[in-house]
Design goal:
alpha+beta, STM4215-like, 6 strands, globular, Pvc16_N, DUF4255 domain-containing protein
Length: 163
């Protein structure tokens, strides 16, 4: 579920940004992220069960990602960050068409974008042991099928019998 959510967020950003491809998106810890070329970093740092959505066939979790940008210059970073903010602020729900196939069939996934207060931000980056940088926090609410339940297969996809 976490990797599927990461890929969904990466796909959304790569499709919405002219200057970034999916190959330029990293999922590394911010301290380990290579920053020598333009790119994005999507780091999942918080997972929390949520009771907001109830279905008997799955549990729902809020996954929070730190979204950071890098570019050759600070002005380039600010420009890319503005584009990222624009793409992520466009919709509060992700339709099935954009989400990873393992997350389809549960309806549109909820997405929330937020920032932290400056004092909280300093503590956050200190705990990560990474330099303070311009970043967003994005929370996706995603399903996790229960162990005894099968994952719905989206229309058009077939499962191989060799699996």
């Amino acid at each position: 579920m976490i990797s599927a959510a990461s890929q969904t967020l990466a796909r959304l950003l790569a499709q919405g940004l002219a200057q970034i491809s999916q190959e330029q998106i990293s999922f590394e810890h911010p301290q380990l992220w290579r920053r020598d070329e333009p790119g994005l970093n999507l780091y999942c740092y918080h997972v929390q069960h949520t009771e907001r959505l109830s279905r008997s066939d799955c549990r729902w979790f809020d996954l929070t990602f730190l979204v950071g940008v890098t570019h050759y210059t600070r002005l380039g970073e600010q420009s890319l960050f503005s584009e990222v903010l624009s793409v992520l602020s466009h919709d509060q729900q992700l339709p099935d068409a954009i989400v990873d196939h393992t997350l389809r069939g549960y309806g549109a996934l909820q997405m929330r974008v937020f920032t932290q207060a400056p004092a909280e931000n300093v503590v956050f980056w200190t705990v990560l042991r990474a330099p303070l940088q311009l970043a967003l926090h994005v929370t996706l609410t995603v399903p996790q099928p229960l162990a005894n339940q099968s994952v719905p297969v989206p229309k058009g996809l077939t499962l191989s019998q060799n699996m």
